[in-house]
Design brief:
With about 220 residues, this protein is α/β, with parallel strands linked by helices. It is built from eleven helices and five strands. About 50% of the residues lie in helices and about 15% in strands. Helix 4 links the parallel strand 4 and strand 5. It is globular, with a radius of gyration of 17 Å.
Amino acid sequence: MTISVLIADDQAMVRAGFAALLDAQEDVRVVGQAADGAEAVTLSARLNPDVVLMDVRMPELDGIAATRRILGPAYPAARVPRILMLTTFDIDDYVYDALEAGASGFLLKDALPEDLVHAVRVVASGDALLAPSVTRRMIEHFAARRPRAGRAATVLGELTEREREVLTLIGRGRSNSEIAADLFISEQTVKTHVGKVLAKLGARDRVQAVIFAYDAGLVEPAG
């Protein structure tokens, strides 16, 4: 299956570089480029990409606001894309809000080319980008600064003891295979538990589950 990608960045050279890299992959095709958030929303609805590479800071409409529109109920396209945020260390304050808006992960702009290609494939497959250690550190950093979610206690009460264990391990960045090993259960059983956890949390993917785990106090930021 070919993964269709829309690139949204206000720097033409950045867009061109990402496009050249991704178009060189046999399983990836760049279907459009947007110079600002408003154009990203328009093109996303028209082109129906599988993945949108979304810069955080752009004119007209920033990447977070654009993500909210694309993933919101008023989005006109039949198929909602996965959003992969692009960021740099000096704009980290925006990352947590982007993940809460429904982004499937984020990547630093100075990441290695193979990391970008891998990230696109990961989010296109329906998973969340949690592998890079910087992702976990940044989520910890922002979760430590957020107030505890008011609905956390209520939602946690709906989880079984095993589902709580699975959520805690998700919050620690464990993969399904690692969770299976930690809990001495099969990977298929883990997948079943993860699906139930996401449904009860109303979480789009594992990134939002990680955020919830920190907000609920199941996982504490490394200090």
